[in-house]
Recover the amino acids of this structure.
């Protein structure tokens, strides 16, 4: 977490282009209109910006500094500091939960996916396609759809 607190101000310079490429794939799977939407691991809000047509939009991240940068942008969303493995929401509170490039950072990504499934009726998530954590996700959910440097999964309840 210290890593993201440390790089919060320079994050977009490093990663915006990469995340925009992922959005080019994601946007065909994501329709937020009229929906109550939660984004988990929103970082500085690169994806949050694209979700503003939602009926209600909430975005959470564990890094206080990343949330601070996101808040400064004036995005039409409610930003909260929260942990993906312990979301402060009720069962089925959201129509759609989305998480982009967060799961590779978690020791137990499957726990966070279960938590997102608990609070949302539909869950769309991506994970970096290299590294160890993505293997755990593939074992449970099969191989994901290619999405830039990530793989993408869509889960309905
Ligand atoms: C690679 S960044 C992606 C940020 C954003 N989704 C984007 O597309 O630019 C990963 C983000 O996940 C957040 N994160 C890592 N572990 C988390 C956790 N357990 N709960 C919530 N957010 C977490 C980090 O703070 C960071 O902002």
């Amino acid at each position: 977490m210290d890593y993201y607190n440390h790089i919060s101000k320079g994050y977009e310079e490093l990663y915006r282009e990469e995340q925009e490429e992922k959005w080019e794939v994601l946007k065909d799977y994501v329709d937020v209109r009229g929906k109550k939407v939660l984004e988990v691991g929103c970082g500085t809000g690169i994806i949050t910006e694209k979700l503003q047509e939602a009926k209600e939009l909430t975005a959470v991240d564990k890094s206080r500094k990343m949330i601070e940068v996101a808040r400064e942008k004036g995005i039409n969303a409610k930003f909260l500091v929260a942990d993906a493995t312990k979301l402060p929401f009720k069962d089925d509170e959201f129509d759609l939960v989305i998480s982009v490039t967060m799961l590779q950072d978690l020791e137990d990504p499957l726990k966070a996916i279960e938590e997102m499934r608990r609070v949302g009726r539909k869950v769309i998530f991506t994970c970096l396609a290299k590294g160890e954590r993505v293997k755990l996700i593939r074992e449970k959910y099969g191989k994901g759809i290619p999405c830039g440097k990530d793989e993408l999964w869509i889960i309905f309840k």
The beta strands are 36-40, 56-61, 78-81, 94-99, 120-128, 145-147, 150-156. The mean pLDDT is 97. Residues 4, 15, 19, 41-43, 46-47, 61-63, 66, 83-85, 100-102, 105-106 surround S-adenosylmethionine (CB under 6 Å).
